[in-house]
Amino acid sequence: MDQHQTLSRRNFVKAASVGAAALAATSAATALADEAANAESWDEEADMVVIGLGAAGAAAAVTAIENGLSVAVVEHAGRGGGSTILSGGLLYMGGTKLQAELGVEDSADNMLAYVTKSAGLDADPDLVKIFCSGSGDLYDWCVDHGMMFDGTVDTEGHNVIAPAGVVLSYSGNERAWEYEQVATPAPRGHSPNGGGAGIFEPLEKTVEEKASVHYNTQGTGLVTDGAGTVVGITAVDADGNELRIKANKGVVVSAGAFTMNDAMLSDYAPYALATSGRTGCQYDDGSGILMGMKVGAATKSLSVPNIQEFIYRFQDLPCGVMVDFRGHRFLGEDWYGTWIGRNVQQHTPDQAYMVVDSVINEHVDDNLGLQQAVLVAQADTVEDLAAQLGIDAGNLQATLDRYNSLVAAGEDTDFHKGAEYLKPVETAPFYAYDFSLTMCGFHTLGGLKINADAQVVGLDGNPIEGLYAAGRSSNGIFGYYPGSGSSIADALTFGRIAGQSISAK
Predict the structure, then answer these.
(1) Measured in whole angstroms, how far is the alpha carbon of residue 418 from the centre of its chain?
(2) pLDDT at 155 over 80
(3) Structural domain tally of the chain?
(4) Cα dist. 286→18, 366, 401, 413 in Å?
(5) Does some domain include residue 28?
(6) Are 78 and 215 within 8 A, CB to CB?
């Protein structure tokens, strides 16, 4: 796969595993780290060493460089960018100058109310507050570093990738009934020109000009001194040559998620293996997380991947009725994709179907999603449709009758689906699309536990001296995923903090 293709349904990373290889590489890495622990000689020396040049690593490096530090970077791929450059390029931010310019009222406090509720109980409230309070400043920093935000605001729908010409859009669950109760809805999906490349490349230029960058070089271990302080790293280049780089002030682990590591998934989130696709890059093998764990780092949220069903990408499909294996409705069909995915995983992982009628089906476009909407049944009667699906016909008919009565009344009092999606399901033939767990995609959210200074926290609750993390190698702000663009914004936020914290030493 071309690592730097734009993320789409066609190049959506499927369930081909590199987990076994990643695990073997990491086992070798830990051995190297042990051997290097008492090393007196180094191949290179820098104030800050970065493992992984994605959004987080680039933000850390740029911040340190601008503060006068020397920086060395190791990147497993032949070019940096990681998951960021593969993405559609959204940044989840609130209370920004762009929102104000486009007539959108929002604030850091309003964003905080939404993210606090949507991120879930497993999220670290201190990190969430830092993320939201610094959001406006992050936007300014992005602009100052060459990211361009030109376009209009879209106040309709949900967007994983912003429509053409749109620079600001809803990218989460902001307008869902439950969230409207705690925060005024506002579009926070900021899309710079050029998508993911438009985010990464301005930072990449600075890093390549002013840092020592080693491409095709895999970080293999963390070197500690006798007191447990991280003082450098070991790495191996494409030819198998070992490289030892001393870090005078600190090491930043920003080597990505563990989405492609089947061994880690089996240990921490085995249900993710039942999904059909993975979002991320091929180097999301968890190696950075495992390196940190080897030197005593704590972890957080490893068991909470982002399970996603982007049904709203299929035009009018959310107008239908989603049912479980019993034929019962269990959610609002217009919810944000990660909320739908999580409900499917928790409520009915084996079977979930979207039932529509012929009128709705005329407007279903399966070419807009990250994956194909799969039609699994078609029938002239509800009874025959239920038989094809293997669910109780009486239950399905009762569910549709109830739903149609809510449509007639003009309000979904059961799950509060938006009025624009309330259309009857009553005109034969009837259709069912498969939205079981097997049709979901995912990426991991958890990683090394960090504090407000992006320091990695040890099992004893104290920071590990000299060790920092950001991006998908860290836990970041996540319990659950609040909106598309939050991963990259989180990576930039805590990458900057890591760079600033090391600079202040």
Answers:
(1) 25
(2) yes
(3) 2
(4) 11, 33, 48, 43
(5) yes
(6) yes
Binning the chain into helix, strand and coil, the percentages to the nearest 5 are: 35, 20, 45
Q: Let me know whether 240 and 377 are in one domain.
A: no
For residues 81 and 93, membership in a common domain is answered with yes
Q: Is residue 4 part of a domain?
A: no
Q: What is the dihedral of CA 333, 7, 492, 494, to 10 degrees?
A: 70
In 3D space, the residue among 454, 457, 336 whose CA is nearest the CA of residue 57 turns out to be 454
Nearest to 115 by CA among 489, 495, 497, 492: 489
Note whether 332 and 186 are same-domain residues. Answer: no
CA distance 99 to 112: 16
In one-letter notation, the amino acid at residue 498 is A
CATH number, position 450: 3.50.50.60
Give the torsion sign (CA, 94, 471, 266, 282).
Answer: positive
Residues 204 and 292 in one domain: yes
Residue 6 lies in a domain: no
**pLDDT value for 17:** 37
pLDDT digit string, tens, across residues 198-241 = 999 999 999 999 999 999 999 999 999 999 999 999 999 999 99
Q: How many helices (H) and strands (E) are present in the chain, helices listed first? A: 16, 22
Q: What is the pTM of this model?
A: 0.89
Q: What's the alpha-carbon Rg for the chain, to the nearest Å? A: 23
| Domain harbouring 356, CATH code | 3.90.700.10
Structure tokens that stand for 461 in this block:
């609750």
Structure token digits, residue 322: 């989603």
Assess whether 493 and 370 both reside in one domain.
no
Model pLDDT for residues 41-62, shown as the tens digit of each residue: 999 999 999 999 999 999 999 9
Predicted pLDDT of residue 19: 41
The alpha carbon dihedral of 139, 143, 147, 148 has a sign of positive
In angstroms, the CA 292 to CA 435 distance is: 36
Residues 415 and 475 in one domain: no
The domain boundary, picked from 417, 439, 461, lies at: 439
Question: What integer best gives the mean pLDDT of the chain?
Answer: 90
- Cβ atoms of 46 and 244 within 8 Å: the answer is no
Tens digit of each residue's pLDDT (9 = 90 or more) over 325-381: 999 999 999 888 888 888 999 888 789 999 999 999 999 886 654 556 889 999 999
Q: Are 231 and 371 members of one domain?
A: no
Tens of pLDDT, residue by residue over 443-465, are: 999 999 999 999 999 999 999 99
- 5 in a structural domain: no
Tell me the H-state helices in 314-367.
337-347, 358-361
Q: What angle do CA 26, 28, 31 make, to 5 degrees?
A: 110
Give the pairing of strands 189-190 and 152-154.
unpaired
Listed residues 385, 406, 439: the one ending a domain: 439
Q: How far is CA 413 from the centre of its chain?
A: 31
